[in-house]
Prior knowledge:
Layout: H1 10-27, E1 39-40, H2 42-48, H3 53-61, E2 68-70, E3 73-77, H4 78-87
Antiparallel strand pairs: 1-3, 2-3
Helix pairs in contact: 2-3
Organism: Pedobacter terrae
Protein name: DNA binding domain-containing protein, excisionase family
InterPro entries: HTH_17
Amino acid sequence: xxxxxxxxxxxxxxxxxxxxxxxxxxxxxxxxxxxxxxxxxxxxxxxxxxxxxxxxxxxxxxxxxxxxxxxxxxxxxxxxxxxxxxxxxxxxxxxxxxxxxxx
Length: 103
């Protein structure tokens, strides 16, 4: 198999990459609908993130979790709650003793 070598400027290379990515995305199967379609009431959302409803309202007031207001009710998308939970995730460092902070 013979390899083709060509020289391209940075802008030409960017255009080639953009075209290749665009073509790949256009040919990719449609993704399933995200879990965003599922929503929770304030109590359900608070239970989901293991907080009280008042603690959840404070988190919303700080702008950490998005919500929607319908009448007097706040509604939360499951995806937003999962994202907030995952933001608090800590990775264990190699030099850290995982049991040290449990003592």
